[in-house]
Amino acid sequence: MLNINIDGIDIQVEENTTVLEAAHKVGIDIPTLCHDKYLSEFGGCRMCLVEIEGSRKLQTSCSTMVKDGMIVKTETDRLVKTRQNILKLLMMNHPKDCLTCSKVGNCRLQDLCYRYGVKNPEVLGKYGNYDIEVQNHEVDDSNPLIFRDQNKCILCGKCVRVCEEVQCTHTIDFKNRGFDSYISTAFDLPLSKENCRMCGQCISVCPTGALVNKQLKNTRPWEVEKVKTTCPFCGTGCQFNLVVKNGKVEGVEPCDGYVNQNSLCIKGRFHTDMIHSDERLTSPLIRKNGELVECSWDEAIGYVGNKLRDIKMEFGPNSIAGLSSARCTNEDNFVFQKMMRAAIGTNNVDHCART
């Protein structure tokens, strides 16, 4: 264990702990834009700079490891001024449409500007006597699931890292250098099923309105209720929050679950459109006179039971096979195989997730 002091608080931490992690252990909030605990350290936003006694330079707390006897300050006048200047530089080249932005109320950049008192800096693109260039990327609205506005991108690189390190897809990366840098696909192709898994992981980590889930584009944080539940699409057990507005499920957001650690696949993130689909079946169907007609559950279950009994009596139990689903609970699948083996008398039972 190493002994360090952060803002006058003496704490003990393990080796290979960053200053940022050590600060979080004692409830000290060091601001970040490019940090994510599930991704590699990037150190690009510079918002997490801290003062370390004995060093003239400011250090990035997300990538600086603690040393025994280290004395750290996280909110000095020098640091506040530095963070204000960083935010001003970002906002000079950022759209000023916060009132209508889909991320209003849930934007990390907006939160930090409020925290450090950065208000509408240089809205006319001037800094003193110098003209300031402004990014002018074309908004990509072609994707059916993800809305992309590169003009709101702050180049934190979180979308690039989550695509590379978590999804291992490598769909997007930095392109060009300096002021001309932006995030893009190979050959600037649109995001599509040809080059992307459509998992939406990039949406989750984006701190601004550069990447938005189209299902939630017209919701505001204060208008919705979030209900934590388990994804029903497979047996993994990923956790997410249902985003409910006026009693209707608009979409889902990942939560830091033990199983999925803030990750979701395309089905888990975007499947909720089926809830209100006009094509969704809401009652059992039985084919009568060549047509499927609605029936009650009692009638449907009785029909299946009678058919299974007739087949078993005529052709024997091994003429029947059962296939269970990974979308069911373990208990449901146990009861299903018990029914097949004990009630019907066959071992012809399989599971869709076995392979």
From TrEMBL:
What keywords appear on the UniProt entry?
Answer: 2Fe-2S, 4Fe-4S, Iron, Iron-sulfur, Membrane, Metal-binding, NAD, Oxidoreductase, Repeat, Translocase
Q: Molecular function terms in GO for this entry?
A: 2 iron, 2 sulfur cluster binding; 4 iron, 4 sulfur cluster binding; metal ion binding; NADH dehydrogenase activity
State where it is primarily located: membrane
Cofactor entry: [4Fe-4S] cluster; [2Fe-2S] cluster
Q: Which domain of life is it from?
A: Bacteria
* Sequence ranges assigned to domain 2Fe-2S ferredoxin-type in this UniProt record: 1-78
Protein location: Membrane
Q: Name one GO cellular component term.
A: membrane
Put simply, this protein is called: NAD-dependent formate dehydrogenase alpha subunit
Q: What is the originating organism of this protein?
A: Finegoldia magna (strain ATCC 29328 / DSM 20472 / WAL 2508) (Peptostreptococcus magnus)
